[in-house]
TrEMBL record:
Segments crossing the lipid bilayer: 12-31, 43-61, 73-97, 103-124, 131-155, 167-186, 193-212, 218-247, 259-275, 281-298
Source organism of the structure: Paenibacillus aestuarii
Main localization (coarse): membrane
Subcellular location: Cell membrane
A Pfam family hit: EamA
Name of this protein: DMT family transporter
Amino acid sequence: MSSNRLSHWYPHAGFVLVYVLWGINLTSMKIGGTEWDPLVFNGLRFASMIPILWVYTYFYYRSHSLKPRIAAGDLLLICGLGILNAVGMEAMLQYALQFSNSANGAVLGRGFMPVITVVIALFARQVRPTWRIFVGIPLALISVIVIVSGGAGGFHLGADTMKGDVLLLMRSVMGAIYLIGMNRLVKRYPLPLLISLEMTAGALSLLPFVLWRADAAYFAAISTTGWISLIYTSLLATALGFSIHNWSLGRLGPFKSSAYGYLLPVTAAIAGYFILQESISLYQCVGGAGVLTAMYLVQRDRNQAAKPAYRREPAAGL
């Protein structure tokens, strides 16, 4: 295999790695994350990465002899996406699950995001309608429903979960908006600057909740396992995960990138099997096979051109 052909698969491999990290993170949250208030956890998660990200950004710009410039409109966009990610996606997901269940969260909160993204992309003529799209996306969604439908607490719709389900669908809409907005930015600016600005905006939006809900006694009550969960989520699942995610996003575009979200129930089940010794059901095996088949169909669609890496554009501002 030639080096050019091999490099074509790097962003695809990047997304697989991202969803492995995020699948493990769900298991990590089951082990230690239950000790934390969701808003405090996410506030500390974003804030703890800011010094590391900005130091890396400084040396990145210095080594490439660049100046950190960004247009005012793009600065507002990346800060808005940071707040959308921290509050509208992460915090809303945890809040919505108080009124629904994890199975509905997997389907409505994450599973519908690629569907919404492809609808927007089709209307905006960013992708061409092909049989692989119309087969692959529904197949992936149905497969996720199969994965989470086995046993008690499986996927279902009803009056008892209506409030949470509406919030979960809103989360999917926000996720699609995030992908489309970030796709515009990663083609124009270096990734370290975007990640640093995004995480800073997210941390600042959650800071009031941290100051309000946490004190010395609260932190003292957190076990070592709880702190390890926070460290894993901050450094690997968020800092590394979002960096690889947005790098791959800039090369594949929002549509193909969103389709990889269907891997999360698969990687989460595998992580639970190896780390928590959870069993893997026939539902999960059949659904996992369906997800992988759908991923193959969508990613092999030749009509969806890969997106170029960012191009540096002179811009006034920061």
